[in-house]
TrEMBL record:
PROSITE patterns: EPHD (PS51805), HECT (PS50237). This is G2/M phase-specific E3 ubiquitin-protein ligase. It comes from Macaca mulatta (Rhesus macaque). Its main location: cytoplasm. E3 ubiquitin-protein ligase which accepts ubiquitin from an E2 ubiquitin-conjugating enzyme in the form of a thioester and then directly transfers the ubiquitin to targeted substrates. Essential in early embryonic development to prevent apoptotic death. It comes from the Eukaryota.
Length: 679
């Protein structure tokens, strides 16, 4: 909810936290205190909540309690959302924990097959749950909770209604009971200034190849031969009556483009029936609510800010599903990329900058060797190539920082437009099945999602040791004299970056530190950031990230989870008739690797078979498989994600052969790469 700060009382509260807190009531008028909640009441509630521990995160300050009798669960508002609690934004603003939340009771379920969400048209199982809701007035209308919440935030109380029958009273009452927040405001599309202005405009120009009017193409004289007549099909092309030999304004006229379409399509043919899109053939542009309206002016104390609007559109959707949706843009036409594994960055840059390269084409990879006189090439794994490319990007000079990285300021890279190319590579990698980048700092991610102006960097974002020391010295100053002494020592630097300010009290140091952080982490790299951001717009990736920030944060800011024996066992499917003994050895081998009884790791096994050290967010394509072959040593086919395991007499022989082959193969590949890079 909207964050409200009262500096006079040194108080900051979120609007939703205030509404939902169990021990506070709105005793004042709307203009008193914070939205009618008196300051003394807020302080009492803060004191009460400080003694309550959240049953989700185990931290104090849990001001919201379940209203069910005898239930003692307390939680924070975000923690409650995380555990799928229900908050009713009506009446007494009741809150229900996950065990006592209201449910929709369906007397009989005659739906055997999936039905589409009537907002986004994605197919869902018609079973009421926290994330799936049914319309109370139309039995065949089902919704994602996320879709309903976005619709409610955009439509407001005056336009939020059932998408099938347009009922508002019964529909809104049920949705409020199920925790959908309906703000008291006009629809966002009604609030935009001059939103429908273009509908009042019409085309007034003669567009025929040879205009005969001496006054020019824009001349329009009604009730004469120089009156403009618009195309009856598109309305976006026009002609003077005389220029197209029309005798009167009532005579029909089509422009050349529309005429060609009508004649080529055969106007007397029967129109084809449109089929309802399903999850297999729906295009990325078919989603109705991919991104909420960018404008939402505050109309009442309960209205949302832009931040809330983004939150409304993000609610938790699976990132794999989002990437698969983006993947619908990929065409069947393929583009082969010739990649030198010893110089991934340069060869990838050349391939992506090629004028014939289209990011929406399917990618094929062929590995080549530099200065090879025979011009030999061999098929490569697309996912291995993207994995190597992301590793190089993470360690490149375009980023700075140890684990969580921000953009660096590299003038040469800026000159060569490499920040744009880096963003483009990241976008292509995500859509084409590449690995999780996992190295973005939270600050860089927030800048991309919410904008630099709404992001506050922290000390961990500063990788420059000298700048970090200046910030630490300012922050640890205990007196005004100490603070002024530090500022005098750093006078030239502070003047250079425009952060000099008049110091009157010790608390001024906090604003000074904030200014330095904003300059060093955000303003200093503004040009690289804008370039990187443009590249990330490739294939609509940035728009998707901004619509669903919580989902994408998990893959952009966090490394994937560690592999386990169970994960790998479930990942690899057995396609051929299995050798029971060999499969038993395989499962025992995975357990031994997990227990540290082998010289290889889970990641080594996955790299050997697929070229990737982790499972891509969109999954492997094709699915990794296992074959049992009468061979002495395992064979990994990275193009097909296939692992052939040996058939041996004893488990000891099986483990020795697996360890030897995997360890030495990866070691040889690493040495070859280092050898080429060294030369």
């Amino acid at each position: 909810g909207e964050k409200k700060t009262k500096e006079k009382w040194n108080l900051t509260v979120h609007y939703y936290c205030l509404l939902m807190s169990s021990g506070i009531w709105q005793r004042g008028k709307e203009e008193e205190g914070v939205y009618g909640f008196l300051i003394e009441d807020i302080r009492k509630e803060v004191n009460r909540a400080s003694k309550l521990k959240c049953c989700v995160c185990k931290k104090n300050g849990a001001s919201i309690g379940c209203v069910a009798p005898r239930c003692k669960r307390s939680y924070h508002f975000p923690c409650g959302l995380q555990r799928e609690c229900i908050f009713q934004f009506t009446g007494n603003f009741a809150s229900f924990c996950w065990n006592h939340r209201p449910v929709q009771i369906i007397t009989s379920n005659n739906y055997r097959e999936s039905l589409p969400c009537t907002i986004c048209l994605e197919f869902i199982e018609p079973i009421p749950s926290y994330n799936i809701l049914r319309s109370p007035c139309c039995k065949n209308a089902w919704f994602h909770r996320d879709c309903l919440q976005v619709q409610a935030i955009n439509a407001g109380v005056f336009f939020f209604r059932c998408t099938i029958c347009s009922n508002s009273d019964i529909f809104q009452k049920e949705m409020l009971r199920m925790g959908i927040h309906i703000p008291e405001k006009d629809a966002s599309w009604e609030l935009e200034e001059n939103a429908y202005q273009e509908l009042l405009q019409h085309h007034e120009r003669c567009d025929v190849r040879r205009c005969r009017c001496k006054e020019g193409r824009d001349y329009n004289a009604p009730d004469s031969k120089w009156e403009i007549k618009r195309c009856q099909c598109c309305g976006s092309s026009g002609t003077h009556l005389a220029c197209s030999s029309l005798r009167s304004w009532e005579q029909n006229w089509e422009c050349l483009e529309c005429r060609g379409i009508i004649y080529n399509s055969g106007e007397f043919q029967k129109a084809k029936k449109h089929v309802l899109p399903n999850s297999n053939n729906v295009g990325i542009t078919d989603c109705l609510l991919e991104e909420s309206s960018p404008k939402l002016p505050r109309q009442s104390p309960g209205s949302q800010s832009k931040d809330l609007l983004r939150q409304g559109s993000k609610f938790r959707r699976n990132v794999s599903t989002l990437l698969i949706e983006l993947g619908f843009q990929i065409k069947k036409k393929t583009k082969r990329l010739y990649i030198n594994k010893a110089n991934i960055w340069t060869s990838a840059l050349d391939a992506f900058r090629n004028r014939n390269f289209n990011p929406s084409y399917a990618i094929e990879v062929a590995y080549v060797i530099e200065n090879d006189n025979f011009g030999s090439e061999h098929p490569g794994s697309k996912q291995e190539f993207l994995s190597l490319l992301m590793q190089h990007l993470e360690n490149s000079s375009l980023f700075e920082g140890s684990l969580s990285k921000n953009l660096s300021l590299n003038s040469q890279a800026l000159k060569e437009n490499l920040y744009y190319e880096a963003g483009k590579m990241l976008a292509i990698s995500l859509v084409h099945g590449g690995p999780s980048p996992g190295f973005f700092s939270k600050t860089l991610f927030n800048c991309l999602v919410y904008g630099p102006e709404n992001t506050q960097p922290i000390l961990d974002d500063v990788s420059d040791f000298d700048v970090a020391q200046i910030i630490i010295r300012i922050n640890t100053a205990t007196t005004v004299a100490d603070l002024k002494s530090v500022i005098n020592e750093c006078y030239n630097y502070l003047e250079l970056i425009g952060c000099l300010r008049l110091i009157t009290t010790l608390s001024d140091k906090y604003m000074l530190v904030k200014d330095i952080l904003v300059y060093h982490v955000i303003q200093r790299v503004q040009a690289p950031f804008e370039s990187f951001k443009q590249g990330l717009k490739t294939l609509g990736v940035l728009e998707k990230i901004q619509a669903y920030p919580e989902a994408f944060c998990s893959i952009l800011c966090h490394k994937p989870e560690s592999l386990s024996a169970k994960i790998l066992s479930d990942l690899f499917t057995v396609h051929t008739l299995p050798d029971v003994k060999a499969l038993g050895f395989w499962n025992s081998y995975l357990q031994a690797v997990e227990d540290g009884k082998s010289t290889t790791t889970m990641e080594d096994i996955l790299i050997f078979a697929t070229g990737c050290s982790s499972i891509p967010p969109a999954g492997f394509k094709p699915t990794p498989s296992i074959e049992c072959l009468p061979v002495d040593f395992p064979v990994g086919n990275k193009c097909n994600n296939c692992l052939a395991i040996p058939v041996t007499n004893t488990y000891k022989e099986f483990q020795e052969n697996m360890d030897f082959t995997i360890r030495n193969t990866l070691k040889l590949e690493k040495e070859e790469s280092s050898h080429y890079i060294g030369h």
